[in-house]
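Progress against Task 2.4 (sequence-to-structure conversion) is shown through the following example record, which the project officer requested during the mid-term review.
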Amino acid sequence: MKVYRQGDLVFREALHLPLTACPRDDTVLAYGEATGHSHRLLGEGRVWRQDTRLYLELEQPSPVVHEEHRPLVLPKGLYEVIRQREYVSPGEDREVFD
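Structure tokens generated for the chain above:
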């Protein structure tokens, strides 16, 4: 299973889209907390949401862009979008933000 990374987001290949996933109208994958910049899909593809999880379905290689990172061109496929977490203290962690 291949994994790709851009800043605080990880894109992990997924085998299938959950049956309860719903398509989203926008292509923003995550907003930065400090700057308001966003990770977003350019080109062909669809973003899906299932509860708190996001999935990215690409029909062809497509770039994910962010103002503070180099574009990441992901191959055709299905990916789970994972926001990285950081250790704070025993029993406490939090999402990492650009």
